[in-house]
Design brief:
This protein has about 240 residues and is an alpha/beta fold. Helices cover about 50% and strands about 15% of the residues. The structure holds guanosine-5'-monophosphate.
Length: about 240
Amino acid sequence: MLYSLTTFRWLLVFKEQLLKRSYPNILAFFGFLFNAAILQTMKGILFIISGPSGVGKGTVIRLLKAKYPQFVFPISHTTRAMRPGEKDGEVYHFTSPSIFECGIDNGDFLEWAEVHWANYYGTLKKPIIDALNEGKVVIREVDVQGFHSIRKVIPAENLVTIFLKAESPEKLLERIAKRGKLPEEELLRRMESAKREMADAHLFDYQVWSLEGQIPQLVLDVEKIILDHIQKAGLKV
Ligand code: 5GP
C-alpha cells in the first residue's frame, strides 16, 4: 500500500519532470521504480541483532548458526585487525580501508558505518536482498548506526530488530575485559558507543535482557522472537 501511494506520487512528479524536460530526475524516477520493484518482491525476513559491545551478540549468533544452518548469516566486511582465533570469511571479511571505500563508492553496501570511531564495518547489499527475495531468514549483527540505515531501506514487513541490553555499563566493561586485553583507549571508545547505543534501544522492535551468566536464556529469548515471526509470516524453513 505504502509503495502504491509512493509510486502514484512519483508518477505525478514524473509527469511534471517530463513537462519540464528535467532528465536527471527522470533517471532518478526509473531508479526508484527499479528499487521499489525489487523490494516489493521480498518475502523473507531480516533479523537485525544489535546492542553494546560485550553484550553477547556474537555468542547468540554463533549458537543460532549451529542450530539453524538453513538460515542465512551474511558475512560483513571490516577494516579492523583480525583478532587471535578469528578467520577471514567466518564472521567478517577483513579488508583495507581503500578497498572498503571502493565498495562504498560502488554502492555495494546495504549499510556501512564507522564503528567506535575507529574502523569501517559494512554488510553487502546483494547477498541479503537475494536471500530475502528467495524467502529466506537472514540474521546479521550490526551496530546502531547500521540499524538506522537498514530500516530506511528494508520494508518494515521484512525486518525485525532486536536490541540486547545488559544490567549496567560496569558489567559490560567486565565482560569486554574478560575477552582479552584491549588498549585503554579502545575500552573508552567502546563505552562511549555503548551509551549512544543504549539511548536508541527503545527504537527497536524488541529489547532482550542479556544478564550475567544467562546466555542460554538470552539465546532462548531471541530464538523465540525469530520462530514466532517465521510462523506468522508462514515461511518454510
Ligand atoms: P567487533 O569489532 O567487536 O566484532 O564489532 C564491533 C561492532 O561492530 C559491534 O557493535 C558490531 O555489532 C558492529 N558490527 C559488526 N558487523 C557490522 C556491520 O556489518 N555493520 C555495522 N554497521 N556494524 C557492524
